[in-house]
Amino acid sequence: MAGINSFEELACWKEARKLRVFVSKTILPKFPNSEKFELVSQMRRSSRSVGNNISEGFGRFHFQENIQFCRIARGSLDETLDHGITALDESYITEEDLRELRKIHDKVLRILNGYIKYLKAQKNK
């Protein structure tokens, strides 16, 4: 990617970082201790996985590998939202918490899909 020297400069990674921080600072503290090794662990891992996979893909030398890691990140992004829906259903978080999570999710998804589209175009040049 011309002019980009680090995954930290990618807009999709920056937004994924915001998702991870929101989950860890706002959502997870509201869960009961009984969920510590279940839903808390799953949601923490899936929210971290989004940025992890974007950064790992960036470090690959081939567009197709980068695209595949971005697709995995997209799956983790949706998994995180699903955990948020479960948390709402279990009355651990509020509708407002889920709305904010969904807002961040949607922004990451839009940017990540744009990045994947860019990578596909570069691959096909």
- Ends distance: 13 Å
Q: What would you report as the Rg, rounded to the nearest angstrom? A: 15 Å
Helix content: over 70%
Low-confidence parts:
none
Counting DSSP E segments of at least 2 residues, the number of strands comes to 0
Q: What best-fitting shape do the alpha-carbon axes yield?
A: elongated
Name the average pLDDT.
Answer: 96
Strand content range: under 5%
Write a concise synopsis of the structure shown.
The chain is an all-alpha fold and 125 residues long.
Structure description:
This protein is mostly helical and 125 residues long. It contains four helices and no strands. The radius of gyration is 15 Å and the shape is elongated. It starts with 10 loop residues before the first helix and ends with a helix. The model has no long low-confidence stretch (mean pLDDT 96).
